[in-house]
Amino acid sequence: MENTAAHASLVALIQHYSADHKQETIDQLSAILFNKDLTFLNRSKALDEWMASHPELEPLADVLFDLLMVHFLSEEMHEADYFDSPAWNEIEDKTLDKGSEMLNVFLYLSDAKDNEVEPHLDDFLTEFLLVGEDEFQDEYRIYESLIVNEDILDADLAGIRDVQKTVKLDTGLQDYFVPLVFFFQYAEGIADKGEWDTGLDHFESAILHTLIAFQEN
Questions:
Q1: Domain residues of the chain, as ranges?
Q2: CA pair distance 13, 35, nearest whole angstrom
Q3: Whole-prediction pTM
């Protein structure tokens, strides 16, 4: 069995999203996401096919793709020039409409582990996403709600939801906003694990706990 951050995140995602989908679902998805005998695109296609037969889990499709991608990038060996290769260009071309902004968070947490850096929201925004640089203004626009609300990590759930209402729909961040803020509250020691669960829906709880699992494994 895979013993990686991505696998731990998968377990947390499924367990916190639905009481009806447990070990069998986790095993089936693990066999797709972490199957190194299949190419990345074949795994992506297999995930699409699996999701088509499990429509009740469709809200998790983008994050499942993110876990596939972060595992592929961080846990599987690639040649130094891989990201200039036709194979990688094909992956990029064929998966432009897949995944969510949580991929950036997973990649940041993976990078933080490699560099033995404790995760912090400001570090994520300024050092990883480089939102202050002119050439990264797309990232600034997506994460503007986190950038301009400097005290967001001190906010309670009601305050965070007020800010969530201002997040532009086309950023793809609105559905993930509350669990993302709560995750950084937890990572920075501002809140304790489980402190917020009663105020979150199943999707938000699943996203929060999958981020925590990724950080802690």
A1: 116-200
A2: 19
A3: 0.94
